[in-house]
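Example record used in the benchmark description.
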Amino acid sequence: MMRHFLDFERPIGELEGKIDELRHLSTTSELNIAEEVGRLEASAARLLRQTYGRLTPWQKVQVARHPERPHALDYIGGLVTEFVPLAGDRAFAEDKAIVGGIGRFRGRSVLVLGTEKGADIETRLAHNFGMARPEGYRKARRLMRLADRFGLPVMTLVDTAGAYPGIDAEARGQAEAIARAIETCLDIEVPLVAAVIGEGGSGGAIALAAGNTVLMLEHAVYSVISPEGCASILWRDGEHASEAAEALRLSAQDLLRLGVVDRVVAEPLGGAHRLPKMAIEALGDAIDQALQPLIGLDGARLRAQRREKFLAMGSRGL
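Model output (structure tokens):
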């Protein structure tokens, strides 16, 4: 399969392309090129380590948006067995930007919710690029209440550029739906572990991410607005997106330092899109570790801990 390389990855892509060409030659001729292939592989691995060891915030945004990065349904498929999808907000419609259902995670019954971007043109259109309408957040709220009623821990997987900004969404109460979803996250008396797996955009993200523990993948981003949106407001020019990304402190490392997230989950070298199965398993381990100490707590304590956690945000300096 042809791998997609980001702009800053092109030197790596060129080296890997040469390696593929040489390997193809070795199968169609009697030339012994193993030594040259080994040398190029070492160079590519070294360049990959150097590149990903010093990513800028804007480059992290690009990695978080990588089209081959695993999405919510990939994590659900890899981590949750006996998954039964649940649909509809019981008020208006089914919104496919937010997926949810009941299944088993590491032997434990859970309710899982996620924002799904889609993997190709057809599925991206079907899932509205992960941008939910009010009925999506109302569905999330309904399912969280269901989990609360039956004592099921909640897992959420966040990957959205933000809530859908269309006129129809505003007409149906987008802001109220997001606010109610956040309120429900903070109100339920079961464990809630949230994971930012790609983009965590504005209220569309925090509507599912107000958890007892918030995890974030190493190259994910989480911010109140996209860098392009911030640049268009502050500079009246989207070309300043890289500067905006720096100012927003949207990387997992910055947000851990500021106390917005609780743990950064390491990705495979070169990002989750290079070794998706490894990334999915690593996140599964992190979610399991986060759930363990929460399972034994009573509902009132879980609720209080979650509220205290978010009330304390902002007390750390920039």
